[in-house]
Design goal:
By secondary structure, the chain is α/β, with parallel strands linked by helices. Helix content is 43%, strand content 21%. The protein has helices spanning 5-13, 31-44, 67-79, 98-108, 125-131, 145-151, 159-169, 182-205, 210-222, 230-239, 249-261, 290-297, 304-318, 355-366, 396-401; strands at residues 20-24, 52-56, 85-90, 111-117, 135-139, 265-272, 277-287, 322-328, 331-339, 342-349, 373-378, 386-388, 391-395.
Length: 402
């Protein structure tokens, strides 16, 4: 297994802390492998196999396990030890009432608990109530570009060819075993997406109109990086005769939330920089993985600017930032990224070579009157690593690898 230090280090940092470690993320993004990596880390630290309990609830032998049976099984094992038991639960949401078992184990047994789940319902109000804030979420994503290069043998490719491949097939880790076979990659992405839609959206949310869900999914995939609203989506689908006027915005809004809960799409809200307030309208959506997008839409060379925005958005999530779309007067900043005392203003553009584009990209950043870092990311290789009135102009790929 190839290491994923971005996420493994988070687990290591929280080891033995009195918190349930909750690993969330879309199916097949590597959560199970992360648990295996962590188990190997524990063994390397001298912890015995007897002190590590790993259960994958997608295995048939655990299919009918009740939360009471789960509690007893783990407690009996923990009580038989004279030292801490490390408990790794994979896809625990399959056990109804699992929150009760986990909370009780945390209180009455010497255990350190790690759980994974492929749906945001895992962090429902039930979990918050039973665990009373005694958990930390590790938000796992598909491979970043830097990770992508460690998973693939691409020695004969140029820098540009490697990046184009990433934009085409995306970062689902399991694809790295397919020798870049396009047919197998497409089949695998189809399997991943079908599983997500069936298990984590249609079944979990009891979707009544799968055809509408598919149309909403296709719309969001085709419009990553575009300002939109539920009303806009409905109007477009009605005008395209994809749905009837009788379809309510409430249903569409629910289906979008289902897709967000399954970690397929992320909604990014707008923030008025001068007015210092969050805006309720015209947010944007980004997709978790460009390989899935290309599987849905076909890998045409479309909307490259928005595709690059999507890459930057996911990289910022991996780096732990809270992300917003910036509004400054009548201008827009692609991303405001914040964490602790740090704030970044980021513009993303394919090229800065045209003078009009250069002025357009610089203008919003120049109109912000604070001293936080301002960056333009571009695929250009000329005139990067430069500074324009305090605004850094960086090569996008170099930034991804930094």
């Amino acid at each position: 297994m190839i290491n994923r230090p971005i996420f493994l280090n988070q687990l290591i940092n929280f080891k033995d802390k009195d918190l349930i470690k909750v690993i969330t993320g879309i199916r097949r993004c590597g959560k199970s492998s992360l648990l295996e990596l962590f188990a190997q880390y524990l063994k390397n630290q001298g912890i015995s196999d007897d002190n590590i309990l790993k259960i994958n609830f997608e295995m048939l032998e655990f299919a009918d396990l009740s939360y009471k049976e789960l509690h007893k099984m783990v407690k009996d094992k923990a009580d038989a030890l004279n030292s801490k038991l490390y408990v790794l639960f994979d896809e625990i949401q399959k056990v109804e009432g699992w929150e009760l078992a986990v909370n009780s184990l945390r209180v009455d047994s010497d255990v350190d608990i790690y759980i994974t789940g492929s749906n945001a319902y895992l962090l429902s109000s039930k979990l918050s109530t039973y665990l009373s804030g005694r958990y930390v979420e590790i938000k796992m994503q598909p491979l970043s570009y830097k990770e992508f290069l460690t998973f693939y043998e691409l020695k004969d490719m140029t820098k540009d060819e490697k990046f184009k491949l990433y934009l085409k097939i995306g970062g689902m880790p399991g694809l790295s075993n397919l020798d870049l076979n396009e047919t197998m990659i497409t089949q695998t992405l189809d399997g991943i997406f079908s599983t997500v839609i069936m298990k984590d959206v249609i079944n979990q949310a009891s979707v009544r109109d799968p055809a509408l869900l598919n149309k909403v999914t296709m719309f969001l995939a085709d419009n990553v990086g575009n300002s939109t609203s539920v009303n806009n989506i409905k109007n477009v689908l009605v005008s395209d005769k994809a749905i009837t006027k009788g379809t309510t915005t409430g249903v569409i809004d629910n289906y979008i939330k289902f897709l967000e809960n399954a970690f397929v799409f992320y909604n990014v809200k707008r923030y008025d920089i001068k007015g210092k307030e969050y805006l309720k309208t015209q947010g944007k959506y980004y997709i978790v993985d460009l390989g899935i997008r290309n599987y849905l839409l076909g890998a045409k060379n479309r909307d490259r600017g928005h595709v690059l925005e999507n890459v930057v958005f996911m990289e910022l999530k991996n780096r732990g930032y809270r992300i917003f779309i910036g509004k400054v007067g009548d201008k827009e900043v692609d991303f405001i990224a914040e964490k602790q005392d740090e704030k970044l203003y980021i513009q993303v553009t394919e090229t800065m070579m045209d003078e009009n584009i250069r002025k357009r990209e610089l203008a919003p950043l120049k109109s912000i009157n604070d001293n936080y870092e301002k960056i333009i990311l571009t695929t250009d290789t000329l005139f990067t690593n430069t500074d324009d009135d305090g605004i850094k102009i960086l090569n996008l790929v170099d930034w991804l690898l930094s």
